[in-house]
Amino acid sequence: MSPGELKPVLTALVMPPAAPLLLLGLGLLWRKRALGGLLCLLGLASLWLLSCNAVAVWLAQTLLPQTSALPPATAAAALHARQVQAVVVLGGGVRPSSPEYATPQPTADTAGRLRYGVWLARQAKLPLAFAGGVGWANSGTAAPSEGAMARALVSQDYGLVLRWVDDRSRDTAENAANMQALLAQDGVQRIALVTHAWHMPRAQQAFERAGFTVTPAPTGFTLPQQRKLLEWLPTGYGLLASREVLREWLGLRMVGY
């Protein structure tokens, strides 16, 4: 297993829900009852809290640099004022098997990013690019390239053509490097970058290191979803949001993550 293929395995082990469950398991196996009980309590408490959307929102606001959304009414004007030359959408995963369509489909993350990227490109009358191949987590599987899937989706569902497609990158650092090689051929250096708000700090950092002038165009913000009491009850989407935020916080501290 290569270092790249090992990365998602190690990440899964230190992120929720695996980390709290491992702590709980350690507590159950610990010979000293007092310390074992404390570890079990910490494991259960951390799993409960990290499954609460209110905690995910707090983590996003505390651990990650904040990026504001482009105001919808003035988004096009803002991009033109910054002399943006293209809109670049980052992939967020692909569903290899979708029986209802009989073809691979984008995950909710990818679909949301593409929808916003298409809207932004139309508003500003700018060409559209997409970056995404087969991620490290799917390396060695039959998972299709995100780029090929995005090209077909944008054409069929939105009636647009992706001018540039990177279908080889496996992570954010490769997104930036491969997209720079593609866009440099057409003299594109100023871009609007579309990805989730929790992913934007690391993505912007990678693309600026690659030589781009980046205007952040975040979507998919980590925000309250229900009334206050329900925000403190465990949910699947709360756990996922906490995991995403913690993963990005870790990624910002690891070069090339």
Brief write-up:
The chain has 257 residues and is of the alpha/beta class. It contains eleven helices and seven strands.
Task: List strands and helices in order, with pairings.
Elements: H1 3-14, H2 18-29, H3 33-50, H4 53-63, H5 75-81, E1 86-90, E2 94-95, E3 105-106, H6 108-124, E4 128-131, H7 146-158, E5 164-166, H8 172-184, E6 190-196, H9 200-209, E7 213-219, H10 228-231, H11 236-251
Parallel strand pairs: 1-4, 1-6, 4-5, 6-7
Antiparallel strand pairs: 2-3
Describe the structure.
With 257 residues, the protein is an alpha/beta fold. Helices cover 52% and strands 12% of the residues. The strands form 2 sheets. Strands 5-4-1-6-7 form a 5-stranded parallel sheet, sandwiched between helices. A two-stranded antiparallel ribbon has the order 2-3. Strand 6, helix 9 (200-209) and strand 7 form a beta-alpha-beta unit.
